[in-house]
Amino acid sequence: MKKKSIDLWGVVLSYSLKIVMIILLIISIWNLHYIWIFGCTLALIVSLIPTILKRNYQITLPLPLEILVIIALILHVGGGLLGGYGIPNYDILTHFVSSFLIAFIAFVIIYILDEYWDGLKMDKYAMAFVVVFTTIAMGVIWEFNEWFTDIIFNTSEQWGYTDTLKDLFIDAIAGIIMAIVGVALIKRGSFEKLTDDFGEQIDKKIIKSKKVKKS
Amino acid sequence: MIISLILAIWKKDYVWVVGTFFGLFISILPSIIKKDVKFTLPWVFDFLIAIVTILHVGGRLLDFYYNIDNYQLITRFFISILVAFISLAMIYILDEHWDGLKMDKYAMAFLTIILTMGIGVILELVKWLNVTGTYYIKTNAALMTNLLADTLAGIIIAGIGVNLIKSGKFDELTDEFGDQIDKMVIDKLEERYKEKNK
N or C: which terminus of chain B has fewer CB atoms within 10 Å of its end residue's CB? Predict the structure, then answer.
């Protein structure tokens, strides 16, 4: 009963955020901001991917993952369109949400592999440790992407030494927070409920462990 | 290392007398540990610790850091090789002796790369905070090339590690060390955990 009520609120939140995205698209069309018309359309398509995956491929992404994706997109598109990046430390907020999303995805993948794949069995605290380092490493890969883009296209994606380190620090903090939240959710059994459907679908389509779940 | 120490005394570079002495201590630490605590570190640890210490202390003493382009990148690369090897060895030992971790060799390789990259970032954050008061080049390019060196070192050790695991040589390399870690740390922690959950 409680899970159903949480799910319902999650679905309401997810649709509300999609409506916000549509409003942002209307604003960008109204102001004839062509780059943000393109940006909003792209973000709207990305936010509809979970629905497409569910309808066409019977893959149900965990609801928090769907919500985090949409929040990250709204913060970025909204920040660009409405001048949010002019607000002090707004970029820290967007970077943190993106890193937290990466950390959440990492935790979900590790948890599912631990449940269904014979090649991995991990204690929950070891999972948390790996999530922190995976988030930092993904942050490094992102910085490499910006660095190479700047070298090849002569852009200014990276603002400088301190800014790069600040981004990496935010990645680490997001990873640590997700690790703590994840361990707490595993202890309560909520993480299992959260990833149950998705795990079984991934198992059927990719891992093919031929079993319901590891004990 | 001993030659470095003599050179430092001869040059009257007392800061580096202390530096080389400390480096010498680190490089003979594996032998000290083996004698006093009955701890046998894999010979690769000995070798890598000695290389890193010689490169760093020698570089400072003979001014290679200032005279040779990208010298710091070479030392950083070898530090990362050492970090990657330690990471892989610890993962392998935990996989062998701890109930809380069972891992496929390719997952171990992936985790080795991730850990080497992550520890590299921690190292950069420590430099940024300037805890040691030592001078470091603080430019975005230097930061990114250091992180690239970490990543490459992680990938190289992961590749070598998987091959060594396949051939059974990694097991031979870490066998004794793993048993000692198991007796001294893992067993005790597991006992404590069991008692706590009784």
Answer: C
